[in-house]
Amino acid sequence: MNDAKTPLIAAADIENAHVRGMSAYDQRVAEADADYDAYWCERARELLSWRTPFTRGLDESQAPFFKWFEDGTLNVSYNCLDRHVEKGLGDKTALIFEADDGQVTRVNYRELLARTCRLANALKARGVHKGDRVVIYMSMSIEGVVAMQACARIGATHSVVFGGFSAQSLRDRIQDAGAVMVITADEQLRGGKQLPLKAIVDDAIALGGCESVANVLVYQRTGAAIHWDSTRDRWLHAETQNQPDSCEPEWVGAEHPLFVLYTSGSTGKPKGVQHSSGGYLLHAALTTQWTFDLQPDDVFWCTADIGWVTGHSYITYGPLALGATEIIFEGVPTFPDAGRFWKMIEDHRVSIFYTAPTAIRSLIKSAESNESVHPRSYDLSSLRILGSVGEPINPAAWEWYHQHVGGGRCPIVDTFWQTETGGHMITPLPGATPLVPGSCTLAFPGIAAAIVDETGADLPNGQGGILVIKKPWPSMIRTIWGDPERFKASYFPAELKGYYLAGDGAIRDAQTGYFTITGRIDDVLNVSGHRMGTMEIESALVSCTELVAEAAVVGRPDETTGEAICAFVVLKGPRPSGEEARQIANTLRNWVAKEIGPIAKPKDIRFGDNLPKTRSGKIMRRLLRSVAKGEDVTQDISTLENPAVLAQLAQSN
Ligand code: PRX
Fold first, then answer.
1. Residue 417 and residue 425 in contact, taking contact as beta carbons nearer than 8 Å
2. Ligand 1 midpoint to CA 502 (Å)
3. Which of 150, 193, 450, 510 is most buried, judging by how many CB atoms fall within 10 Å of its CB?
4. Which pLDDT does position 223 carry in this prediction?
5. ∠419-423-428 over CA atoms, to 5°?
């Protein structure tokens, strides 16, 4: 937050910036205020190529199931590939793929289009139709991007599942989406290790409930021996090699579902966030252009995985819609050493770099103890814009990023958004917005972000409250796949006057009006920028019925990962201590990894004879959060049934 002690850092003076100076920002905000529909329609005409032009923008007739540009038709892959080739940019490099072992492969727009078409034809040959769902379970690869684009080309709706999710999580997503096909790889390579993918798909299918899957397409990444079921498994190279290089795009309505991406909520199982084609692509492209001030010669690098929304909007769709050159990185930031990111920026002359605060914080630690992996040991002069995403960036990490990576000259865009929002909601624009470390500054022009109380009434600047978006915007979530009631209840609660509820708390600075996100107001955790529901982890723990009687999960602040998962467990047997406690804690961590994925492993597991409950039997989570933080419990515990358990739960294993 800004106050007199933290002066604004002047915006960079970028000569040909898309949005240059605050007056240009204000002008766009004023345009959107004056005629919201016209503002968005104009953007959609400027940035996208429509097969059939739309005649209207926003349709609110079935609120909160909003529609945008509904009578227009387009094809997303046409917008990302063909139109650049048609304009003579076929030779321009689209993707620079750097493998885990450092090997580099470049693909230009013409080749990327041809590869997308071959796969699109192969999908059709296997009976995948417009509207069918295809699950993509792959690591970072050219093939992963091609798979997404090929689905878009034929109007199939993809659902990418992050390669770190377990067989159980993958099965749940395949089943919920009713996928007809899974596209995967034999293995993935990360940090010098070969990790299975196809074997996990086999396990997921073996769990049952995936009868809709007729074919599993396998990209051969490592050549490892894998189990093969010839009734359904097909090699991707064999399926595509004889397919033609062209494939007529399927022209779809703007509202056609481009993808479903599963994310965690505060209750129940993960929800399938459904996005549109036209409105989604518009905001992915527009934010790539304005937030990163993307210019034709830029080399853009978003380090996210395509399994998360950041990889969708700022790898597969936004940059390609604008004909950019971008990096795709298979590996991890610490292999072969913690200088990998800086070396890649130097080698590829990266000009725009977009990563997560967790990565920065862990690289700070390494750089401070080893000069050879410090950013100053590399030539980072190609950089002009830095970005941050996924969690709050603490001012100390911001300053280090600014100073040591950006050489004090590159603006940092701290972009606040969510899986559901499709693209940036609150962010600085690099050539316009003065910066404050730790603040995501101001709403993107055309996004009606505000802070309200529990009744939806506006709160004045300086007073923290609930973050909402007051007006529908083109790239917003359309529904939760198969669960429209949950969509309404989760995002448009009756008491909030029809505003979109983001699920975060925020405060605006009294003087500048700048936003600072204060964290989730529901039971969703953010660990290393990965979103997880406490209920999901609790369910995973109690499903270990042999050992666990009861479990409660909360987050606690962590220096590197932002938040860490802390689980309080009551065992069926007696409360263990010492070595036995450590062993059981490890068994439970591995259990959670098997149920959800390694990213959901609790960092702390504490055992108690019971959980702190009120006399009516409600678990006092507020208290558990204090215990997890190691705070002395000063809260009123007079309603607590069993105060003695607090001392037990304070002990870590
Ligand atoms: O709590 C906010 C946090 O991440 C949540 C959204 O997570 P997810 O849907 O996985 O999308 C992550 C990538 C966009 C938000 O509700 N969050 C995201 N960006 C920021 C942030 N918190 C603070 N500052 C940010 N820049």
1. yes
2. 10
3. 150
4. 97
5. 125
Give the span between the Cα atoms of 106 and 328, in whole angstroms. 10
| Helix (H), strand (E) counts: the chain | 20, 30
Confidence at residue 634, expressed as pLDDT on a 0 to 100 scale: 64
* Whole-number Cα distances in Å, 208 to 211, 213, 231, 582: 7, 11, 16, 34
3-state SS of 264-306? CCCCCCCEEEEECCHHHHHHHHHHHHHHCCCCCCCEEEECCCC
d(CA 351, CA 327) in angstroms, rounded, equals 11
pLDDT band at 635 (very low <50, low <70, confident <90, very high): low
DSSP secondary-structure letter at 87? I
Pocket, ligand 1, Cβ cutoff 6 A: 263, 309-310, 389-392, 414-419, 440, 502-504, 517, 520, 526, 531
Q: How far is CA 163 from the centre of its chain?
A: 13
Q: Which segments of 60-189 does DSSP mark as H helices, in order?
A: 76-77, 83-84, 109-125, 142-154, 167-177
390 CA to middle of ligand 1, Å?
4
Q: What is the tens place of the pLDDT at every residue in 129-184?
A: 999 999 999 999 999 999 999 999 999 999 999 999 999 999 999 999 999 999 99
pTM over 0.85: yes
* Mean pLDDT value across residues 19-45: 98
Structure tokens at 643: 């105060």
- pLDDT tens-digit series, residues 309-333: 999 999 999 999 999 999 999 999 9
Ligand 1, atom 22: nearest CA belongs to which residue? 391
| Atom 18 of ligand 1, residue of closest alpha carbon | 390
**From atom 14 of ligand 1, which residue's Cα is the shortest distance away?**
418
Q: β-pairing, 73-74 with 500-508?
A: unpaired
Question: How close are the terminal C-alpha atoms of the chain, in Å?
Answer: 36
Measured in Å, residue 391 CA sits from the centre of ligand 1 at 5
Q: Per-residue b/e over 171-182, b at no fewer than 16 CB within 10 Å?
A: bbbbbbbbbbbb
Per-residue confidence (pLDDT) for residue 4, from 0 to 100: 41
